[in-house]
Design goal:
disordered N terminus, globular, 5 helices, alpha/beta, 17% strand, 236 residues, Lysozyme-like, 2 domains, two-stranded antiparallel sheet, 27% helix
């Protein structure tokens, strides 16, 4: 009986360690379960963008994001500016960065008018860019899209109607016309960044169900990237 009890203890110890190890892998290494050659194996996602993209780190404080625990399946496109406070010069990166800090929001990447890409949050962390909303194709993501998405901001300004949510009367007329809409350089950089994300995140499919605008997820609250954004310029 003593020998049997010893064997049972050993079996329970091994099984217990196995369960703990699996939990630690899921929690600490943020792995995704993938099916390969009919066997389930764990594969850690590659959260490092290609060096060929020439991304400049410009990280927000840690409190502007949190650790990611879900698999990335979406990319969300936004526009951003400082037009409400400086309509004549709305695209100073340091000013937009300060706004993000002030309001406790974030995105993983921001692309300026010249097409330069800056990384604000590591991909292995959840950025606070989507907020409350609902995707009819993924109802289970209701008010929780941040967990499953990479957020990309483009420095841009929409139409007067779209910007009326954020600008006071008369401010839109102060914005130089060259600041309205998007630039060729931004479309080029965004397309390259998306190609890199498609390669590294198999669940981010190259379609308009997995690559969405903020205005599609939260149409009552948000208008970005708006009607001036040309989806065909990034392959749709």
């Amino acid at each position: 009986m003593k020998k049997i009890a010893t064997i049972l203890c050993v079996v329970m110890f091994v099984n217990g360690c196995s369960n703990v190890a699996t939990t630690n892998v899921e929690r600490d290494e943020e792995v995704s379960l993938v099916k390969k050659e009919d066997e389930l194996t764990y594969k850690k996602p590659n959260t490092n963008p290609s060096e060929s993209l020439h991304i400049t780190p410009y990280y927000l404080p840690d409190e502007n994001s949190r650790r990611r625990t879900a698999e990335v399946t979406h990319v969300m496109i936004h526009y951003t500016s400082n037009a409400a406070r400086n309509p004549q010069n709305p695209y100073m990166l340091e000013n937009i960065y300060s706004l993000f800090e002030e309001y406790g929001v974030s995105a993983h990447y921001i692309i300026n008018r010249e097409g330069n890409i800056f990384q604000l949050v590591d991909e292995n962390r959840v950025a606070f860019h989507a907020g409350k909303g609902m995707d009819l194709n993924f109802l289970e993501y209701r008010n929780n899209m941040n967990e499953y998405s990479i957020g990309i901001e483009l420095m841009a300004i929409g139409t007067k109607e779209e910007m009326s949510l954020n600008l006071k009367e008369g401010q839109y007329e102060l914005i130089p016309t060259s600041h309205i809409g998007y630039t060729d350089e931004q479309y080029d950089s965004l397309a390259k960044l998306l190609e890199d994300l498609y390669e590294r995140y198999p669940k981010v499919l190259r379609n308009r169900e997995n690559v969405v605008g903020h205005d599609e997820y939260a149409p009552v609250r948000k208008s970005d990237p708006g009607s001036l954004f040309e989806w065909e310029r990034i392959g749709f």
